[in-house]
RNA sequence: GGCGGCAUAGCCAAGUGGUAAGGCAGAGGACUGCAAAUCCUUUAUCCCCCGGUUCGAAUCCGGGUGCCGCCUCCA
């Protein structure tokens, strides 16, 4: 049984699927005009963990994640951007669509590296404008909109339950005090938002609509696509906390008003990942990508494991020190799982494995408490249970954790292998073999010198009982 | 100004009424020619501060302090 903390009711709620055969899940996906950073990935890991937990519970998830590929982006913004990839693409005459395709592919590559289960549908916003127009018309027909001159706005005072999700109180936000007259002159109040905007110069994406040539507002994107693929009501909506207001509040108000349904029954929000105690941003130049991490020797699985050491609703302050501690812990776990003998020296009680199983399942079921689940993994691997039993537990648990618990960490003998299946370079293997010979002949000074050279080449020698040192990348 | 979150050992981090999980680092031991790796043992009388409720609170209530986020595109 899985329970999740729901932002609307502000408490843990048991997941009772609307339909017995599938759990409908919608995730606010990436805007594909840049590489996703590790903060984005932490949020998408929440979706992945949720999908895996749902499966672990014997249920079938149906996952929808949108791709925002029409930018809501002006030509001049595209050209002013500091992003080197975009700047280069524009200079090469690439269209916004081509740029979006490039970053969409990059996003999927990152997802694979993070070992995310794929969603069932990845609807592109740019190909769902007719659905957005249909929803806007539906709302217009219900008399909850107003506007003129190619602009259509949603009147939030006509939405039942507006503010339930975010706690927003009309007229209380700072926005009320800093309304930009030039932009909002057509709006009755700051909280109202645009369903449709009139065409303006320099915009690449434009569509014909009942309100004239223009483009859809941002919030209606998710409302329309969620309804199309998941219906008027579905089980879970996932997103980052920063989207709680206004985006989630608005898309919820819109969808509920348009369809009369409840939209998402449960809202889960991922806490932010901060770097050096600050939210990542271009201006602070602290936006790390997966490639940045890899260039510092941190693999995607190291990062995934590190994320799992915190609960998803706990803000994470990313530091290289804590990431390093996690990477070491993961490496040791893998080492321990692969090194376990077939049978435990002292056996281990028959019910012990079941106890670990139960505790792991309870942790995951309790609002996806991955850190608690990891504690169970550590305890199990240090227990007296036989190796094959522990490895079976790891196999089961890794369907949820997805960090590769049973991955081989190091080669069995000198030169045989290195982490990730890479082989140590031949010259390093030669050094290791020469050192072994020196040790057998008790020429320790020479052996130690060779060991130092191997270290300089980036490898540690792991001496075993048989004397033949394995190599491990440092 | 409004709304929300967080404060637990050197560091990261679970725990939301019954007497502090787990990881990293550190210490001691085993192993080793010495190391490394590995294994074993060990490390918070106490959970930001001040009151209160309770037989009992890190956990509940009231009041502070500090940090972060949202209210504008934002995971």
Labels describing this entry:
474 residues, alpha/beta, Rossmann fold, Four Helix Bundle (Hemerythrin (Met), subunit A), 3 domains, 4-stranded parallel sheet, 4-stranded antiparallel sheet, 14% strand, globular, RNA-binding
Description:
With 474 residues, the chain is α/β, with parallel strands linked by helices. Helix content is 42%, strand content 14%. The chain has a 4-stranded parallel beta sheet with strand order 4-3-9-10. Helix 15 packs antiparallel against helix 16. The radius of gyration is 27 Å and the shape is globular. Mean pLDDT is 86; it is low at 176-182 and 410-421.
SSE map:
Elements lengths: L2 E4 L4 E4 L8 E5 L10 H19 L4 E5 L9 H6 L3 H8 L4 H18 L15 H13 L3 E2 L5 E3 L26 H4 L8 E6 L15 E3 L2 H12 L2 E8 L3 H16 L3 E8 L2 E3 L2 E2 L10 H6 L4 H9 L7 E3 L1 H20 L12 H14 L4 H13 L4 H15 L24 H15 L3 H13 L2 E4 L7 E4 L1
Parallel strand pairs: 3-4, 3-9, 9-10, 11-13
Antiparallel strand pairs: 1-2, 5-6, 6-7, 7-8, 11-12, 14-15
Helix pairs in contact: 5-7, 5-8, 7-8, 10-11, 12-13, 12-14, 13-14, 15-16
The structure holds one RNA strand of 75 nucleotides.
